[in-house]
Amino acid sequence: MKTKVIDITKQYDEALGESARLLQSGELVAIPTETVYGLAANAFDEAAVKKIYSAKGRPSDNPLIVHISDIDSLAPLVAEVPEKVKITAQKFWPGPLTMIMKKSDKIPNAVSGGLDTVAVRMPENRFARAIIENAGVPLAAPSANLSGSPSPTNAKYVLSDMDGRIPLIIDGGGCKIGVESTVISFAGEKPVLLRPGGVTLEEITGLIGEVELADAVLNELKEGEKAASPGMKYKHYAPKADITVIKGGLDGFLKYVKGRDCFVLCFEGEEGLFEKCVTYGRENSAFSQANRLFDALRELDEKGAKKVYARCPEISGMGLAVYNRLIRSAGFNIIEL
Ligand code: AMP
Ligand code: MG
After folding, report:
1. Quick check: CB of 38 below 6 Å from ligand 1?
2. Are residues 91 and 131 both part of a single domain?
3. Is 264 close to ligand 1, i.e. is its CB under 6 Å away?
4. Is the Cβ atom of 183 under 6 angstroms away from ligand 1?
5. pLDDT for 216-248, tens place per residue?
6. Which residue, by CA, sits nearest to atom 7 of ligand 1?
7. Residues 67 and 196 in one domain
8. Residue of 127, 182, 223, 310 with fewest CB within 10 Å of its CB?
């Protein structure tokens, strides 16, 4: 299959027309969003949704997020809209927040990975919204990378993973946030944060009160332990290089890596201290780290890095999302100094 790339910032009408035509005929289209690029299919078309799993090499029990462009599209997807979802949607939609609810019969099993729930998000990116609107259907879309690789935050990295696997990539430039959406389940008694992301835990609890933190956000699942979110049990965000996260200050880090033949994943301004390094944002800005992390992981591969030691981010606010991705990319290799 030949993969076409259309720059929506230059060919707006063609991008919308082509993506609508393909999505309506059961094909896949990679689309820009404010979090990361998504690999989209018509969420009501089970055969189309199954193509997502094969293009990504994604395990079939790992459910997909359904993307909508207006609030009226939510009710038909779910059994009921809980009060806390209404309040949260009003404040954080459109935006980098996914909410899980009991699903309606309209959601095919391929979307929910066989669960009785569905994850829904209304993205903020104007191109994503226009693509959904023009397609006229909700779009099931996971990140547009091969399963296991870092999520793509630009069209170049989508193409390097998906070339020949999908017919169309819509290039909408870089992604504002750079890590995937926050995922919260409202399907049980209490809201549970399953994945940290662009909307912080602090912001959500400020609005609706207590939100539980799923164990798998900060810890590796133990053998046989059931994941609240199936995605959390799989290898994730991993570059080819072997990464170790070093907890502790810069001084200790410098002593630790001294004399080792390695690459360093460090903060901006620290480049002069290491022979071989890639930076991921500023030490005091979790937003800049989120924005850079996945690109930095891919750059390490491009530079042929084999062993990498990474500086550790702060673990609160947006930093929780950065830390959650970094420890997964490191396969939970963490050293505390
Ligand atoms: P991605 O599409 O790559 O951003 O991944 C979507 C994430 O949301 C994965 O970690 C999924 O396991 C999770 N997810 C999607 N739908 C559900 C659901 N119904 N219940 C629990 N987790 C979900
Ligand atoms: Mg993903």
Report:
1. no
2. yes
3. no
4. yes
5. 999 988 877 777 887 777 768 888 999 999 999
6. 231
7. yes
8. 223
